[in-house]
Write a structure and sequence with these properties.
Shape: elongated
Strand content: 5-15%
Helix content: 40-55%
Distance between the termini: 26 Å
CATH superfamily of the largest domain: Spore Coat Polysaccharide Biosynthesis Protein SpsA, Chain A
Length: 406
């Protein structure tokens, strides 16, 4: 996870100016700011009014983390002067992180996350376009474990946008379509700036873009994440100036391109993993086929000579294990380290794991031939097939130290 503490002055304000502590903090609300002095007082009050009842019900605490990029209009000072008025029985605290120099939205969120103590995180704008009354609903989705990421969406049923020009709407819709199509995302509002997630979702990402749409990187880089979109009405700002610019548009397109390349690289790695897995499996079972001949031929011969099913089966197992180990080491897994102690250690692993497969084969053969009266040769063939599946997967992982898939 990227982001630097250089040039950051953090101050925490709770009730009576005290720090929030950190125990039982259920939610951290991260708000990047730049020239939002007119909006921040109302935003702080609205957040307090929206979440104080839920915090009492949960007997939990929350924190607001304002990350200000040295706003010329004094946003950080205004936030500080208003922070002591919005706490409610010490259940809500405000932290103000002052950063010197304008460094961007992504790094602001990451710096906020470094200072966050909550088990859940909300990211939102300070311009009042993101309604705080939606926060309790988003938090409830996470606490009830119905999802890992909640997106406040303008484009699902019930969502809408107010006070936008046709040009701004067209840009937003286009940006969303570009993201969904190029990055193959299955959400309606992939460029929303208002979302909530469990803390681990953000902590597990190595952020590499510098764009304003953090959600894109989350959706692309976090595997098997449960996502839910809930509708809201985006209201264009009444105070201050929009941060949108040509540079932001270019940064956005660059971020989409970088994430597209990331996705392609990941898919290639997955394909290479599947190819390697299938190649290993094909070789292993080719070796297994030779082992099958050794196993089957030796066991059948021993049974005809000794007329003892158990000794015959055991003989076939032991003979095939050794021949299979040598071929799998040198050919299947291409292990050229022939140091005596290392090879003996591998052989002991291989013998142990294959013995488990051998025990499985032994028991199945006995069960099928002696209990159910199946022809011995057929029972032996079935048992060898099932045991070989165990042998491949277990030895791939533990004897030759490879991932199961890949």
């Amino acid at each position: 996870m990227q982001g630097s503490d250089d040039g950051i002055l953090g101050r925490g304000y709770g009730r009576d100016g005290g720090d929030d502590g950190g125990s039982n903090v259920v939610l951290s609300i991260i708000i990047p700011t730049y020239n939002e002095s007119e909006n921040i007082p109302h935003l702080l009050r609205s957040i307090r009014d929206s979440i104080q009842l839920l915090l009492k019900q949960l007997d939990a605490r929350a924190e607001i983390i304002i990350v200000d990029d040295d706003s010329p209009d004094g946003t950080a000072d205004v936030a500080e002067s208003n922070s002591t008025h919005i706490t409610d029985e010490a259940r809500l605290s405000v932290k103000i992180l002052r950063r010197y120099g304008r460094r961007g939205l992504l790094s602001a969120v990451l710096d906020g996350l470094k200072n966050a103590k909550g088990s859940n995180v909300v990211v939102m704008d300070a311009d009042l376009s993101h309604p705080p009354p939606l926060i309790p609903t988003m938090l409830d989705e996470l606490i009830q474990d119905r999802c890992d990421l909640v997106i406040a969406s303008r484009y699902v049923d019930g969502g809408s946008v107010e006070n936008w020009s046709m040009k701004r709407k067209a840009l937003s819709v286009s940006a969303n379509m570009i993201a969904r199509m190029i990055l193959n995302l299955n959400v309606k509002d992939a460029v929303s700036g208002f979302f909530a997630c469990k803390r681990w979702v953000l902590e597990g990402i190595e952020f590499t873009t510098s764009g304003y749409k953090i959600l894109l990187e989350v959706l692309v880089k976090v595997n098997n994440i449960r996502v839910k979109e809930i509708p809201y009405t985006f209201v264009n700002r009444s105070h201050g100036k929009s941060k949108f610019s040509t540079k932001i548009a270019i940064d956005y397109l660059r971020a989409v391109w970088l994430l597209y390349r990331y996705g392609r690289k990941k898919r290639r790695e997955e394909r290479r993993g599947s190819v390697l897995f299938l190649s290993r499996a094909a070789r292993f079972y080719t070796v297994g086929a030779s082992g099958l001949l050794v196993n089957y031929g030796t066991a059948s011969l021993a049974n005809s000579l000794l007329a003892n099913v158990h000794i015959a089966t055991l003989t076939g197992i032991l003979c095939s294990i050794t021949s299979n180990f040598i071929l799998n080491k040198l050919w299947t897994f291409e292990d050229t380290d022939l140091a005596v102690m290392y090879t003996l250690k591998q052989y002991s692993y291989y013998m142990g794991l294959s013995s488990v497969g051998g025990a499985l084969q032994f028991l199945l053969t006995h069960l099928l031939s002696q209990i159910y009266g199946m022809n011995y040769n057929l029972a032996l063939l079935i048992a060898i097939g099932l045991a070989s599946m165990w042998n491949f997967l277990s030895n791939k992982k533990w004897t030759f130290k490879e991932r199961i898939w890949g």
